[in-house]
Amino acid sequence: MAPKLTVLGYLSKTISELVIGTIIIKEMIPIRLTEVMRTVKVLALESIGPNLDSVVGLLRCFPCIEKLYVQSCFRNDMKNVRQYDTFDPIECLDLHLKAVVLNAYEGKTPDVTFAKFFVLNAKVLKVMKFGAYGTWNNKWM
Fold first, then answer.
1. Which residues make Cβ contacts (< 8 Å) with residue 75, sequence separation at least 6?
2. Which of 18, 20, 37, 131 could make a disulfide contact with 25, Cβ separation 3.0–4.6 Å?
3. pTM above 0.70?
4. Termini Cα distance of the chain
5. Are 50 and 72 in contact (CB under 8 A)?
6. d(CA 9, CA 118)
């Protein structure tokens, strides 16, 4: 394990396999999780879609995340309809996640539902920042 690791990133799907102690992540999806890494406070990643299921899976690996940075790569077919199950809580959403930064935010449905998940479920969220991408105007802002 990496007992002093506090910042982890830039994770992307191009990393075919990442092994940290007993945590195995393949293409952004946790495969084996016998222990969690509580020392990581900042997570930066690239998410295709953005893919909420993939990101939530990573949050389970690193339950003490305080800041989440997501570089989004838009994909039209993403649904992001995941509902938060209070009977299967995600620790960082309940206790730790204070900041979410969404880069390459286009304001399209997958982006909006991704952001909405964190607004509705991160109980200690203090700030969410959006890095606009593409063509925008004052009305869009």
1. 48, 49, 110
2. 18
3. yes
4. 43
5. yes
6. 20
